[in-house]
Amino acid sequence: MSAHKVLVLLLFIFCSAHQFSFLPKAEKFVSTNVIKTVYNTADKRAAKCRRWFADDRGVAHLRLPRCPPTEQQAKRNGTFSEDKSPPHVHHPGADRCFRSSANFWASVWQWARTGDDPGGQQCCYRNGQLITDGTEGAGTADRGLLLWNHWWHDVLPSYYCCMDGDQKTCSLYLEKRPIDTGHDKEE
């Protein structure tokens, strides 16, 4: 069985098909143990990251909303909903994260008709303020809104590129999945 099939199978076993709520222990298992087993050295993970970088089309073609500068604005905005995945799993240092909301079934229909996922913006906050510095807890633009696309196009590449703490490979990920710095407009 290929690495891709193993990861997809584990993803479907451990994850809800229509929400971003995961079982944290299972998610941690998939994110670290499986990837470190399949790509068992930092060099192999870096090579996988470089291949992903060369093949990925990024998020510039998506019309993603800007992150509100404060958590209160994100709550009131109406464009964002609280991320159900605990922030300590993917965004250590964040108190809370929000994702740009989209109608789930409309997104599934769009994907089924066109093969395009609308993507989404993830905004993470510490002490009520948007995190914009480096990778310490910050959210990123996501190519996938639908769970399986999000995992395949956004989460797994973040592990390949950033789990070893190598700034050079992690910067490749952040070039394709930039951290939004928010906007200045009060809402």
From TrEMBL:
One Pfam family, short name: AMOP
Primary site of residence: membrane
Location within or outside the cell: Membrane
Polar residues: bias regions: 70-80
AMOP domain ranges (all copies): 41-177
Bias-annotated ranges (Basic and acidic residues): 81-93
GO cellular component terms attached to this protein's record: membrane
Range of residues in the leader sequence: 1-19
Coiled-coil ranges per UniProt: none
InterPro entries: AMOP_dom (IPR005533), Epithelial_Barrier/Signaling (IPR051495)
Highest rank taxon of the organism: Eukaryota
Chain residue ranges for the region called Disordered: 69-93
PROSITE patterns membership: AMOP (PS50856)
Xref: SMART domains: AMOP
UniProt keyword terms in alphabetical order: Membrane, Signal, Transmembrane, Transmembrane helix
The protein's name in its UniProt record: AMOP domain-containing protein
Organism of this sequence: Heterodera trifolii
